[in-house]
Design goal:
single chain; Rossmann fold
Length: 347
């Protein structure tokens, strides 16, 4: 039906999603299955300075986002203890601008106007990808000129959504790193369906590690966007995937990265630890998902600051959702090198 009667198919999907929203219990919770509990992490005396280190030198909006996320971590249960709550109850910490009604409508209208080929290729057009472009949407033209004509390293490529959505930024080539065999197969199919030449991208099957000496990883290949080395879902074919650092992959594939996006379900700290030489040498614009676990949220930025000079870091929430774990999801750390131009219109 999807291929032969697309309008009927999408209407039925819209109808089913509406019914699902109507009858599904409303819940808000904090993810604790991808590397530990935020509450337990913050209650550990050894981490007493982590919040201060994170917000240091951040702009006011970034600080506000962190403070609201901290309020939600305190107010809402961990995933293992989640329960129903009233939709009428005010959201802990208040709403961020991106979560307001006007912004939600703007995002909805923008995504509804996306090419129909995108809607056929993907069940869901992710806001962080197809609206915010992993943060590139909010950056000035000078930064976009800085990354144009260079390589895009897409870490956690899934089925090609980022590679497809970010074509307009004029990258020389896209290097897509993905550990799921199922996702890689769908990636190739999506590129073929959309008429994108295989000369425009390179697919790399690897797990991103902090060193190259670690053993290959055996994981259940769910083929889902939430596939993680930190979570084993069991009832799927097991695959063995080599762990490699970004530094090694950049060297082996002769990559000249000017934009690196990493959304790897809890392993952002491993990524940055294994990318020190790449980040120091190529000085790319970086966009890192840091919301999956407390070590991502609190330790990635201070680590980057320990060796990257003349970078501006800021934090943004790249989605409008609140329900379930969306209250703290899609929190991205963006890092911009000073030579890419002024950021005065961003803050």
């Amino acid at each position: 039906m999807r291929n032969h009667y697309p309008k009927i198919y999408h209407f039925l999907i819209y109808l089913l999603n509406g019914l699902k929203k109507l009858f599904t219990p409303y819940s808000i919770y904090i993810t604790d299955t991808l590397g530990g509990s935020f509450k337990e992490y913050l209650s550990n005396p050894e981490n007493k300075d982590r919040v201060t280190q994170l917000i240091q030198d951040l702009d006011p909006e970034s600080q506000k986002i962190i403070n609201i996320v901290l309020e939600r971590i305190k107010a809402y249960p961990d995933e293992k203890n989640k329960h129903w709550i009233s939709r009428r109850k005010p959201v802990a910490g208040g709403l961020l601008p991106v979560e307001g009604r006007q912004m939600k409508k703007e995002i909805e209208n923008y995504l509804s106007a996306a090419p129909k080929e995108y809607k056929h290729a993907f069940k869901h057009l992710d806001e962080s990808v197809f609206y915010f472009y992993h943060g590139l949407r909010m950056l000035p033209q000078g930064v976009k000129d800085y990354i144009k004509g260079k390589d895009f390293v897409d870490i956690g490529a899934y089925t090609g959504d980022s590679a497809i959505a970010l074509q307009e930024f004029g990258f020389r080539k896209i290097f897509s790193i993905e550990m799921s065999h199922k996702s890689i197969e769908k990636y190739r199919k999506n590129m073929t369906r959309l008429g994108i030449s295989d000369k425009r991208y390179v697919l790399i099957n690897a797990c991103i590690g902090e060193t190259d000496t670690m053993d290959p990883v055996k994981i259940a290949d769910t083929g889902s966007a939430g596939l993680s080395m930190l979570r084993d879902r069991g009832k799927y074919d097991k695959i063995l995937v080599q762990q490699k650092t970004v530094d090694t992959l950049v060297r082996e594939y002769h990559i000249d990265p000017r934009f690196i996006k990493a959304d790897i379900e809890g392993n952002a700290l491993d990524f940055v630890r294994g990318a020190v030489n790449t980040l120091k040498t190529h000085r790319p614009v970086i966009s890192i998902a840091i919301y999956h676990n407390p070590r991502e949220l609190f330790e990635v930025k201070p680590f980057l600051e320990s060796f990257l000079s003349d970078y501006t870091f800021f934090i943004r929430k790249l989605s409008a959702g609140i329900k379930n774990n969306l209250c703290h999801s899609d929190i991205f750390l963006l890092g911009i090198p000073s030579e890419s131009g002024s950021l005065k219109n961003v803050f």
